[in-house]
Amino acid sequence: MVRIPNINVPSEKPENKLLWHSLNCELITPMYGGGIESTKVDKDMPIRASSIRGNLRFWWRLLAKHKWKITDIQKVESELWGGVSNNNDDGKAGKVLLKIAKQPKVNEQQHLVDYNDKSLSALRYVLFPAYNEKDKSKSPHKLLKAGYQWTLQVAFSHDISENQKKQVWESIRWWANFGGVGARTRRGLGAVKVDENEFFQSVIALSEIVDLGFGVQTFSASNPNSAWVNAVKKLETFRQVGAGRKDHNSRSHWSEPDTIRDYTEQALPEHSERKTQNNAFPRASFGLPIIFKFKGNNLKGDDDSSNKDPRTTTLTLQFEDEKYERLASPLILRPYLDEQGEWHSLALVIDDVLCDMNGSSYKPILTDINHDQVKLDDECVFWNEDYADEVRPLQNRHNKPLQAFLKYFKG
């Protein structure tokens, strides 16, 4: 016979109960990944509170630097959001609690769409991780369709200050306007819309963005999807066919191909004469790594013959003595809803680390397909503004690549 314990469990005191605030959220563009496997949608839990927390911490750090002018950002962040103490290895509890409610279980027919679906054909440029997947067991990748809704619930510990609460709400506000969920949010995937609520004024005016020193441009669109598609197309044509080159069979107007030909000592005879004169990697400003694969090499990209165009190479960076495989793109593309309820394509530049803040501290690293490092000379830099006149996409726009793109985006 099972004995049933007779224990009086004290009820939680009213003053200790958490007050949960609810925010109604909706995907306005499809979400890519977001599950335990980064490229897959988790059908049971597609939206994760832990992922949103990470996004909110990013926006909090950005605002701490540019708006609130906090000096010891790491210490103040740890006090609010939690983290590892400097004095020991024990984790510090945060003052912000998040949970997801009213999250429908994903139905494959109703909620998912293949990455190569006709409706997404104009977005191949930002869905390249799915197109480049070689493991057939992971393909085709499926995206969570726009229109999926859930509720984000927020609560605060009792020792949080009013100023800290305001910072949290402001972080949520910026995430709701310019962030998202899942992977590749800076290219507009997984963009979210949060309904009007009592906790903050939802829309962020363009003047607020400019006041923080960020670069921004918009142009009108009829709906969120067209706003996103048109923004992505602007980036694609700036970097590739359009402003970046005449057509798929012509040479690039950017300086990276000539630079790589010089350092690898490889070039097709018809490409031996340079289009640009100085060695630089201006498109690194849009994020790293960049993989350069030349059609003038073989299919595998490993021919090191001097009369072929260069073997496949990957561009990363070194800062001081540390090597880094990735530099997050400081450019955000996504739909933007203004104060009048009108949709726009938006390009937002939140940083320009390779051109600002003593960009000479950042050194390019070029590695070939055999994992051998290509020798670069000491004069090689990511970018030098004096080279702008010889790079056609920058001509008559701006001598910094990201700022030139903002002008192109608007035009």
TrEMBL record:
- Domain CRISPR type III-associated protein residue range list: 25-193
Q: Which Pfam families match?
A: RAMPs
Question: Superkingdom of this entry's organism?
Answer: Bacteria
Per UniProt, which keywords does this protein have? Answer: Antiviral defense
Q: Which GO terms describe its biological process?
A: defense response to virus
Q: Does the keyword Chloroplast apply?
A: no
Task: Identify the InterPro entries for this entry.
Answer: CRISPR-assoc_prot_TM1795, RAMP_III_fam
Its protein name is: CRISPR-associated protein Cmr1
Which organism was this protein described from?
A: Alysiella filiformis DSM 16848
